[in-house]
Amino acid sequence: MNQTPVVQFQHAMKRIGKRTIVNDLSFDIQAGEVFGFLGPNGAGKTTTIRMMVGLIKISQGDILIKGHSISKDFNKAIRNVGAIVENPDLYKYLTGYQNLKHYARMVPGVTKARIEEIVGIVGLRDRIHDKVKTYSLGMRQRLGIAQALLHRPSLLILDEPTNGLDPAGIHELRNYLKRLAHEESVAVFVSSHLLSEMELMCDRVGVLQNGKLVRIQSIQDFVHDGGSSLVCVTVESSQVEQAKRLIATLKKEILPIRQPGQLLIPLNKDEIPTVNKLLMQAGIQIYSIQVQEQTLEDKFLELTEERK
Ligand SMILES: Nc1ncnc2c1ncn2[C@@H]1O[C@H](COP(=O)(O)OP(=O)(O)O)[C@@H](O)[C@H]1O
Ligand SMILES: [Mg+2]
Description:
Elements: E1 7-16, E2 19-25, E3 28-29, E4 34-38, H1 45-52, E5 60-65, E6 68-69, H2 74-78, E7 81-84, H3 96-104, H4 112-121, H5 137-149, E8 155-159, H6 167-184, E9 187-192, H7 195-201, E10 204-209, E11 212-218, H8 219-224, E12 229-235, H9 240-249, E13 262-267, H10 272-281, E14 286-292, H11 296-305
Parallel strand pairs: 4-9, 4-10, 7-8, 8-9
Antiparallel strand pairs: 1-2, 1-3, 1-5, 5-6, 10-11, 12-13, 12-14
């Protein structure tokens, strides 16, 4: 796995007027991965993508695509990119197939066989000869992706592709993007402000906040590691005050109790045995210790809140 990354951000910056919209982005995207670019509205996702596809200039730094600088060697760089930045340009009164043929005329080297192949890949074979106006949003999305993929790019960029899709459409898109990355080795760069979707769709996520990358991690690590979890300890309710006093000696905060006998304590994983031992040694009857995993949403908020 020692190949040149498909995308290399090198201190990429975007300033508009006096404002820094994208602030010193440096990271790589590899072939065969779905990379989630996650951040709240206004974080700078679309601005970053617009720089990647040459719609706006980079103020400072560079972005390399397959080793080619998007600012110095635009034609070579962009040849490797397929993107849907705003809505895909589709002609509603033409069929899906006619749309693809029309588009293929504008890019060199796209054969009829390639059109057939891509129709299969995006799963539109049954409907490709129907007019686009009869398509669901999900099907239009896939036709847009087909169009973006016709020239076999190494990188597919999608800006908030799940916007407006229903759950079934999102499910379809997710499976499709994964297949594309894992089986066809395309690097997929997908932006979103919705963490729950990224969790299922991406191999890695980068979290953008106020134009800065505040974290970059495999999705497993993002979900499982770091931070404290909320631990719910249930003890014999007559002993709850005693238990609280003991835990207070560890300088741990105890959150308001919801049920008699329950203690809610933010703890790191390695502190749980200590609390357990302390209570047991004092003769407190422990009925259960439950770790309430922080949801991705919680983590995301924690990450983005603390930097405001
Ligand atoms: N052309 C522009 N002129 C001034 N400000 C802009 C321009 N484009 C984007 N911005 C600002 O940059 C910030 C990031 O915008 P954007 O990249 O669209 O964020 P996102 O896609 O993450 O929601 C926003 O505050 C937006 O108002
Ligand atoms: Mg945007």
